[in-house]
Amino acid sequence: MSYDYKYAKSRLLEILDDNSKIKNIDMLSQDESEFETSGVETWVSVIYIDIKNQAEIITQDSRKNISKVIKSFTSEIVNILNSKLVKEIKINKGYIYAVYNSPTRNNIYEIADKTYYVNTWIKMVNILLNNRNLPTYKIGIGMSTNKEFVIKTCSEMTEVNNKLWMGRTIDEAMNLAKISNSVSEDKIAFGETSYMNFIESLILESEESKSWFTEHKHPEYNKYYTASISITEFDNWIKNGMKE
């Protein structure tokens, strides 16, 4: 994937150094049309990012600091997760997940690459937060791939829409994200189907890449694989002081 991490740093600094006041408004605008109900069976992948210390993040005394910490995280995570394959990105105070179309192995490989960028990027944002005495993030990253029955639902009686319902894939990615960086010290956990569909392409890039992963057993998901892969050039830039 193409990600300008140097420009990302400048965007983060704008957020972290913003001292504008918090506005009070009467209500949020709601400008969203209903859409057609449908159901399909298709291959999808999910990247799920579990914020393990979200209680620490949202219980700071300063609302301005809470805003800075959350915006610095979510704004760039969305930039990394976004792609032509993405169908939905959900943001919550304790997690972020993205749902992707992934009908081919190349798609799954491209989506897995995003987990490496997230794992590298979090090092940068944590350094910038720490330099400002703001709480840093502890996250776990999970990725799952499955053939799913996907339903779009909406109600003609209400403006509240349930845009996308899914079965196993989100749950599996969520559980893998909770395992990573907690049960396992590795930062990323991949479901077996995800791993089996991208590992050959990764080996073509680097013959030693298979050694980066540790295989585990799971009572529900059979096998899963953990790793702490980073983007080398990006990671070296961070280690060398993130100079322009």
Describe the secondary-structure layout:
Blueprint: H1 5-16, E1 38-51, H2 54-58, H3 63-81, E2 86-92, E3 95-101, H4 105-131, E4 139-153, E5 162-165, H5 168-179, E6 188-191, H6 192-205, E7 214-218, E8 222-227, H7 232-239
Parallel strand pairs: 4-6
Antiparallel strand pairs: 1-3, 1-4, 2-3, 4-5, 6-8, 7-8
Helix pairs in contact: 1-3, 1-4, 3-4, 4-6
Describe this structure in words.
Helix content is 40%, strand content 25%. With 244 residues, it is an alpha+beta fold. It has one domain (34-239): Alpha-Beta Plaits, CATH 3.30.70.1230. Strands 1, 2, 3, 4, 5, 6, 7 and 8 form an eight-stranded mixed sheet that branches. Helix 1 packs antiparallel against helix 3, helix 3 (63-81) runs antiparallel to helix 4 and helix 4 packs across helix 6.
In whole angstroms, how far apart are the ends?
A: 21 Å
Q: Let me know the number of strands.
A: 8
Largest β-sheet summary: 8 strands, mixed
Count of discrete domains: 1
Q: Using the coordinates above, name the CATH class.
A: Alpha Beta
Fraction of residues in β-strands: 25-35%
Rounded mean pLDDT is: 85
Content-based structural category: alpha+beta
Query: Which architecture per CATH?
Result: 2-Layer Sandwich
